[in-house]
Amino acid sequence: MSTLSPLDGRYASAVSPLVDHLSEDALNRARVTVEVEWLIYLVDAGILPGEFSPEEREEMRGIVVDAAELAEIEAETRHDVKAVEYYLRRRVKYPDIVHIFCTSEDINNLAYALTIRDAVHTVWLPAAKRLVGAIEELAYEHRDQPMLSRTHGQTATPTTLGKEMAVFAWRLTRQLERIAKTEYLGKINGATGTYGAHVAALPEVDWITHSRLFVESLGLTWNPLTTQIESHDWQAELYSDIARFNRILHNFATDVWTYISLDYFHQNLAAQGSTGSSTMPHKVNPIRFENAEANLEISCALLDVLAATLVTSRMQRDLTDSSTQRNIGVAFGHSLLAIDNVTRGLAGLEVGTEALARDLDNAWEVLGEPIQQAMRAAAINGATGMDNPYERLKDLTRGQKVTEEMMRDFISSLGIPAEIEARLLELTPAGYTGLASKLVDHLGE
C-alpha cells in the first residue's frame, strides 16, 4: 500500500502507538465518549428525564465506532461531529438527548483534550523518559572519564564525559517535568460560551456548576470563559514545551554526532542493526542521530505553527484551528520517531577511551588556566614575582604546541610557593576536571 507520509509507511512501526490516540479514528472514538458521557450526565443529574441501569451505561460506554458507517453518514452530513451525533442516535436509549445543548466545539475541544492527554501520558512521555534514563545511565557510568572540552571548537578546560551527558539529562528532565504538569482544559457552554440556549430551555438549572462538574468528571480542567471554542492556550503551552524538549534533544544529537566524529564514541555496527556506507566498508554512519535531527526539525516546525496558530480565533469562531489540529499527530509522530532513533543510537555506542586519552595528552596548553589562577591567588596572598600571569601564560600557550616538559619547566621557573608549585606539577590535562564527577549527583535532585 502506498502512503503519502513516511510516518504511515517507512516509519510506521516506530510511531504506531500514537495511532490509538491521535488518528482520525481515535478522535472519533473520543467524540463518541464525550457525547455518551454528556448524555449519561444529563440524565443522572436529573437535568433531563430518564434512567439508565448499570448495564445500559456499560453498553453505551462500550459502543464501538464503525469507521465505514461513520464515513457514510459524514458523506451525507458533510460535518464530522454531526455524523457522530447521528451515529449515536442509532444506538442509544434516548436518541433525542444526544448532542443536546452542545455546539460541535463543545464535543471537539473535550475530545482533543482527552486524546492529546492520553497520547502524552501513554506514549510520548514514557518514550522520552526512557531516553533520558539512557542518557542518565551514560552520565553515571562515565562520570569519571576525562574528556577534553571544546569551547568555540577549540581545546578548552577538560570535563568528564559523564558530566556532559548529565547536562543534557538535567535539561531534558526539566522539560519533561513541565510537560507532565500540563493542564488539559475543556469547556461545554454552547455556541458562543454564554449558555444562551441552555438558559432559554431550562432556566432553573445551574448550568455553570454542571458545566464545571462535567468537564472535571472527564479528568480535565474547566475553562470558565470562552467564545465558541476553548481557547487552546493550554495546547500552545504544551507544544512549546515539547518543541523545547525537541530542540535540546537536537543539541544532544549534534553533540553526540561530533563526539562520534572525534572517535570519543565508537558505534557498534551490530547494535545499530544497519549497514554503514554503501561503498566504503570501513564506515559506520551515525544515521540514528542524523535521522533524529531531521525529524526533530520537522516536529518543531509543526509544533511552532500549532502553538502560534491555535491561540488566535477571529472574534467568536473561525475554522483555522480545525484544520491545524489535524496535524497534531504528525507533529508528535516526528518527535517520537526522533526519540526512538536517539534511544537506538545510544544503545549502540561504546566509549573511545584511547581517543579521549590521546587528545587530552596533546592538550597541555589547557593547564594555562589553572596556573594563571594559582598565580593570581598567590599574589593576593603576598607571593612576589606573580606579575602579569595572563600575559605570561598567553605568551607560552597561544599559537604554539605546548608539551608536558614545557609546561612543567614553566611552573618550576615561577618561584611560586613550594606547596602551590607541587600541586601544579601534579596536574595533567586528564586530571584537571575539577568537580565534574561530583556534579553528576545533581541528577538525583
Automatic annotation (TrEMBL):
It catalyses: N(6)-(1,2-dicarboxyethyl)-AMP = fumarate + AMP; (2S)-2-[5-amino-1-(5-phospho-beta-D-ribosyl)imidazole-4-carboxamido]succinate = 5-amino-1-(5-phospho-beta-D-ribosyl)imidazole-4-carboxamide + fumarate. GO terms for molecular function: (S)-2-(5-amino-1-(5-phospho-D-ribosyl)imidazole-4-carboxamido) succinate lyase (fumarate-forming) activity; N6-(1,2-dicarboxyethyl)AMP AMP-lyase (fumarate-forming) activity. InterPro entries: Fumarase/histidase_N (IPR024083), Fumarate_lyase_CS (IPR020557), Fumarate_lyase_fam (IPR000362), Fumarate_lyase_N (IPR022761), L-Aspartase-like (IPR008948), Pur_lyase (IPR004769), PurB_bact (IPR047136), PurB_C (IPR013539). Residues 64-292 form the Fumarate lyase N-terminal domain. Residues 313-433 form the Adenylosuccinate lyase PurB C-terminal domain. The keyword Protein biosynthesis does not apply. Keywords: Lyase, Purine biosynthesis. This is Adenylosuccinate lyase. It comes from Flaviflexus salsibiostraticola. The lineage of its organism: Bacteria, Bacillati, Actinomycetota, Actinomycetes, Actinomycetales.
